Amino acid sequence: MFRFLVRRFLWFVVTIFTVMTVSFFLMHSVKGGPFDGERKLDPVIEANIKARYHLDWPLWRQYLHYVGPFNLDENRAVATRDEAGELVLWRGELPGGEPPKVFGGVLSGDFGPSFRYKDFTVNEILGQSLPISMLLGVLSMMFAIALGVSAGIASALRPGSGVDLTLRIAATGGIALPNFVIASFLVILLVFLLPLLPVAGWGTIRHMLLPGFCLGLVFAAYIARLTRTGMLETLSSDFIRTAHAKGLAPRTVVLRHALKGGLLPVVSYLGPATAGILTGSLVIEKIFFIPGTGSHFINAATNRDYTLAMGVTILFTVLVYALNTLVDMAYTLLDPRISLEDE
Amino acid sequence: MARQRIVRQVAPIVLLGGLLAAAIFATRGARLAPADFVFNNGTEVQTLDPATVTGVPEGRAIRMLFEGLVVSHPETLEPLPGMAERWEVSEDGLRYTFHLRQNARWSNGDPIKAADFLWSYERFLDPRTAAEYAYMLWYVVGAEAFTTEVEDGRPKNAFDSVGIEALDEYTLRFTLNAPTPFFLELMAFYPMFPVCRRNIEEAQERFPDSWRHEWLRPENIVCNGPYLVDFRRVNDRIRFRKNPLYWDADNVAFQTVDALAVESYTTSLNLYLTGEAHWIDIPPANVIQELVLREDFNPVPYLGTYFYRVNVTKPPLDDKRVRRALALTIPRIDICENVTKAGQVPAYALVPPGLAGYTNAEMARAESYDANVAEAKRLIAEAGYGPGGKTFPTIEVHYNTSETHQQIAIVIADAWSKYLGINAKLLNQEWKVYLDTQSSLGYDVSRSAWIGDYADPNNFVDLFVTGGENNKTGWGDPRYDDLVRRAAAELDPAARMAILTEAEALLMEELPVLPIYNYVTQTTYSPRLGGYYPNVKDEHFPKFWYWMNDDELALKREAYPDDGRHALVTPWGPREGLYPPSDPRSGAAAGTRGGD
Predict the structure, then answer these.
(1) Staple A282 to which of A294, A310, B339, B483, CB 3.0 to 4.6 Å?
(2) From the CA of B262, how many Å to the nearest CA of chain A?
(3) What was the ipTM of the complex prediction?
């Protein structure tokens, strides 16, 4: 187990650096910048704003400043025009004579100021939105597992029956329909026709029910199908027949013996599913007006808010990596035949 | 094996505990008492610092917190006393003297004096502040030089060189380069609002590394407007609470106001329809048709024009006859009636109609659309295209991704192909890419719009001077530049307007831009909301807002014209109303506030 974790950690470092570097340069190569607007600014003013965020530096220097751990912010340019009317950048000491910080950048735990939301740092934005997204994600995951597993078991116990058929059709529907379509239907039904739930917003448990349900539904459908397949396979194996022969109650056989094996495919799906919930929540967050991380993922990219987009990307990489590692560890708990040391 | 069993039993408990902790953490403080008034601000604001920002949502938030020398009347937008209780304008229109009110205080209790304004404007113009709207104050003597001339990384000129001075503790005088008829209006514009020097300097001392955002935190920010920041949650809301030290606090009705950051138009409408928001700025385009029949949607002309830019550097669009043919063939009435539907007005000029003292110069055209099409066909043939001539190359029409822009482009491209035989390829681009394509002239025809910051034609006419940053068409004409220069220096207001009309006439003859329609406001608000009016700038001053009681609402409804466009809807807000302390009706409502 220990060697497994060490190896995973080394790969983690490599992954993070690759993701960080590739997305940094990709993002800066896309057309348009954070301060472009419909109203183009006077060139001097524009140059001053860019200089304030170091966009006048060569890209490699911006990258080193962003990654850290050393703060390169020892000067800041101010723009003016020379006699020919050309733009010139003056480099002087920091405004107000502030002493420069020694450390900075991602390696010192500082994701920098947001280019768009200038009153906040990226750390603050992520710190505010992540717990909300996590809660929404965990809620929809619990919901997906509960609904998916029970539907899968019910299907597997009587394959080919009416129950099985209905559940399978429902699962196919859940996979085929995008969550914003389901969300729209449910809003019409549960907010406007039967005024039971608030239409959008965040705050109370009632606010979480609709988005949690809509976000989890597609995963519930996948889990139902995986559980059904896994259970069918396990139920036909020898040790289940033995258990029945020993005279155990059918309930005990299914829940204590068959379920463990039947759930293996589901467990392996949890890693990708978590990634899907994290990145897929942006649509649901938009529809239900939830201040989570998912909407920053897309907004930061369209606003060219370089630091925030980088922050969210790095955060999601860490989360997906960590959750996949957890899923691999959970494997050994469910199936003693699998050992992490053999990897 | 034993270790595994422990893991198996402990892990779920740890996970559940973590989940519970996360739930408590995430919902901590999330259960809010509803605010007296909730509006959708459309998106998260970039900053609350009045000096460094441009944008409509930012303006709405900043007007809650700060106040300039003057405020605008909520309906007519005429200047009313704000931080200045009165003002004088010199006869030549070059000197504005403002007398500050002596009872105004910052929210930290300090009096607001002329020195506060001087310091704020120095900060605003200083290039190191990097203020986007700094050029708005360049009408003042020496201001442009102060921003753009630097030496050793700081302004070369002392601030004394700028024509803003304090005559005494409470008197402020501005000296302008040329008469600027909209100068008072400019003073009601949010970048001109003062900020508190002590607020920023204390933050610089306490947070040497991060004062740039620390001074704006709810617990640090010092304001002079009707409201204060209670708290902020990114992408959710800003909660404002009444500023007890505001000079006119007696006339402010609401105790708490929420500005939501809902970006989805549909969600915003849903919140409005369920009474969780009382005013939304833009409803989804596909419900406009139904909304125009309701009392809560009253579009009025808005100071903006929707038009197409034409890249005049590329043949065949460098030919003015071709541009004129394209302009004549645009089915404007069809677009306004069947696509935009909210009462937008077909535009034949760049400057929106209805600016006081200004006569629009519209493009020459016939009365009927058919006659215009016939003329367009003739122009295209004259330019050497069509049957018997060259084939017209396919042109690209660019627009930023949006359903309405797409529908409009389809209608126009269809007309061009049907009547002129010109094939147009429609290209939608993501916002920032679209802006880049437009600035770098990488297009043939590009969807554009311009919203005026203040009600003066120069706001629009100035755009198309040769090489202007916002020209983006490659077009330039020394005659036009000369007219714009002359207008800026003209002392007589009427003569100035006449010169601007002449410039617009030249633009409408050359047509580097094809006007399509003039905007209307789309604000949708509870009929019970008082002190709020749709207006030409769609700018709203929060100090006037209140809730009407049932009696006042009934009176308002009686006055509706019988035009079938005022169907009654649920009036969100408390039935007993909510009036400011100065209003005699305010006592009746005390202690019984609640939903409808």
Answers:
(1) A294
(2) 6
(3) 0.86
